[in-house]
Write a structure and sequence with these properties.
45% of the residues lie in helices and 18% in strands. The longest helix has 17 residues. It has seven helices and five strands, in the order E-H-E-H-H-E-H-E-H-E-H-H. The protein is an alpha/beta fold. The chain has a single domain, classed as HUPs (Rossmann fold), CATH 3.40.50.620.
Amino acid sequence: MRKSRIGVYPGTFDPITNGHTDIIRRAAKIVDRLVVGVARNDGKGPLFSTDERVEITRREIAGFEPDIAERIEVRPFDTLLMKFAESVGASVIIRGLRAVSDFEYEFQMAGMNARLNTEIETVFLMSADRYQFISSRFVKEIGALGGDVSHFVSKEVAERLTERFSQRAKER
């Protein structure tokens, strides 16, 4: 009997987009268990705290088909990705590619990670056509300026963004 294949899909997910959930759903089909690692990256000045991003991501996954959702776990991490992957017993790191512009950075990261641990492979999944242009950064910029982000994120995430931006506006 073969060992269970565990994958890690890391990101800041600030906010989680439809592109992210597409990659999560597809990644869950190629591993036995998927750990979505929500990176604590205070240096990026996240819109949502790590705990909020973990909670939002868990809610998004709870809406998946039960046979997929039950094999996905969401965990925060604040270590080197390779250390996190080792700690959960992963043999695969999943990375999503939207466009050619993502490739150079991701290629370098995969090379560095391979030097850190030759037992953990990086697998790239191409974004579906309809999600290739979506990025969390653009979603936040559009939302901050009052634009409609409902095509890029779930209804719940769009509501959370609207709430957060109106909260920030009141604080000014």
